[in-house]
TrEMBL record:
Record InterPro entries: Homeodomain-like_sf (IPR009057), HTH-type_TetR-like_transc_reg (IPR050109), HTH_TetR (IPR001647)
Protein name: TetR/AcrR family transcriptional regulator
Keyword Repeat set for record: no
UniProt GO MF annotations: DNA-binding transcription factor activity; transcription cis-regulatory region binding
Domain called HTH tetR-type: residue spans: 20-80
Organism for this UniProt entry: Rhizobium daejeonense
Length: 201
């Protein structure tokens, strides 16, 4: 299905400061409902109650719970893309190990900053008609990482970029599943695995 389905898009965007604050309050409430109850407890009534707003106020901006989920997913993705872009922009000044460290840190931050929220949003991604957006995101990140790896002489950089992303996400998912909160320890293990993959040990 196409990611343009209207029920996953916000009805409108706030133009006034008060409206912007309300939207942020609603989105934070949505995140907290996901963190405490997961997708099973997630609905617009629960979000409105948590946000302290009327259901009518919520529907002014979000036509369905799917629109809330899609907005949270898109925001999460935007932060990731910006972090990856920041690392890529510094690629010329970094050695390969430091470059890999930067990409790993960017990926792990997304997963471990709010692990329960991250897991719920990953489940939601599979349920929402945003496949085109997801594929575009993967291509964008893969190309950004591959370009940086290519500049450092890594062979088959696109394959390496995909593998490193899968490695980072897989280990982050496992850490989140078991409630790991020790970011430095997880980052160290992911670095060790990535260095081994690239033959940097």
């Amino acid at each position: 299905m196409s990611g343009s389905s209207s029920f996953i898009n916000a009805r409108k965007y706030p133009r006034q400061a008060r409206s912007a604050v309300m939207v942020e309050t609603i989105l934070e409430a949505a995140a907290r409902v996901l963190e405490t109850g997961g997708l099973e407890a997630f609905n617009t009534n629960a979000v409105a109650e948590k946000a302290g707003v009327s259901i009518g106020s919520l529907y002014q901006y979000f036509p369905a719970k799917e629109a809330l989920l899609a907005t949270l997913i898109r925001r999460k993705r935007m932060v990731l893309v910006e972090a990856i872009s920041d690392v890529k922009a510094q690629a010329g000044a970094l050695d390969l190990r430091s470059l890999i460290d930067g990409f790993i840190r960017a990926g792990l931050f997304q997963q471990l900053q709010r692990p329960r929220l991250a897991r719920s949003l990953e489940y939601a991604e599979a349920m929402l008609p945003i496949d085109e957006e997801t594929e575009a995101l993967k291509r964008s990140i893969t190309m950004a990482v591959a370009d940086a790896l290519r500049a450092h002489g890594v062979e088959e950089p696109e394959i390496a970029a995909r593998d490193l992303a899968a490695l980072t996400r897989g280990m982050a998912d496992a850490g989140g599943l078991f409630g790991e909160t020790d970011m430095p320890s997880l980052e160290h293990r992911v670095r060790r695995a990535a260095y081994g993959y690239l033959g940097l040990n």
